[in-house]
Amino acid sequence: MRTEVITVRTGGSPVVRDITAEAARFVQSESDGLLHVFVPHATAGLAIIETGAGSDDDLLTAIDDLLPAEDKWRHRHGSRGHGRDHVLPAWIPPYATLPVIGGKIALGTWQSICLVDTNGDNPTRQVRFSFLTG
């Protein structure tokens, strides 16, 4: 297994950050296997979605509808509504595993690997890429 950790700057507001290019660079010298992507944070997740056509903004809107940033959360440290950030990984998991064929991630035409971060209190994230072969 080969692994690498990258740092992603997410800033101070909710964001969907496309990390497909970084993942593609990580596997470009590999043959066939699996790419496992993991975010070791309690308030971020990974989604495989289309970006650039509004889907990333739609995802953030859906998160706000499902998990509003209000003071209703029991987990109350951090900024207002931060408790919802700790619930996010139950809906958007902190991991994804994708096939790699001939050094290329086998994504669909419009699919991208995206880091989803609603926690404005933590402006940088770590993402671990691991390549597994059989």
UniProtKB/TrEMBL annotation:
Pfam families: YjbQ. This is Secondary thiamine-phosphate synthase enzyme. It comes from the Bacteria. It comes from Paractinoplanes rishiriensis. SUPFAM superfamilies: YjbQ-like. Belongs to the UPF0047 family. InterPro entries: UPF0047_YjbQ-like, YjbQ-like_sf.
